[in-house]
Amino acid sequence: MTTLSAAERRAAERIAYDAYLAACPARKLLDRISDKWVSLVLTALADGPRRQSDLARFLAGASQKMLTQTLRALERDGIVDRTVTPTVPIRVDYALTDLGRSLLPVIAAIKGWAESHLAEVECAQLAYDQANREPDAGRRSPGPARDQLAAVRNTG
To answer: What positions does the domain HTH hxlR-type occupy (predicted)?
Structure first.
């Protein structure tokens, strides 16, 4: 049995956790934390614990099933803690763990980027859609969408 130096162990760990490899466990974790409901649940819990019913009201459009699945997966991953209080009716609260709180700066940065660049992305989508639509009388120019995109880029 060969003894590895610390540098060799770190190199082996980098290879073992390479998200570009199909079998890498980090890829599964990236898939989980990049889910839109995960990011919204994490930011909803940023200010402190919430009941599931409160989360359901706060996260417009989230079905009960999707919210339950998301919370269970986050609890399993150690990102969210579930606390049951034996009252009538039973009270269930969800809160971020230390691990979950460590994700907040990353999620907040992505959320902020999405909110501040939405207009530019929408203009780019419009320009793309216009440029790639079926040609009407041979015209494939993005026309006004390209002007809108230029205006957004110049003001941002």
So the answer is: 24-122
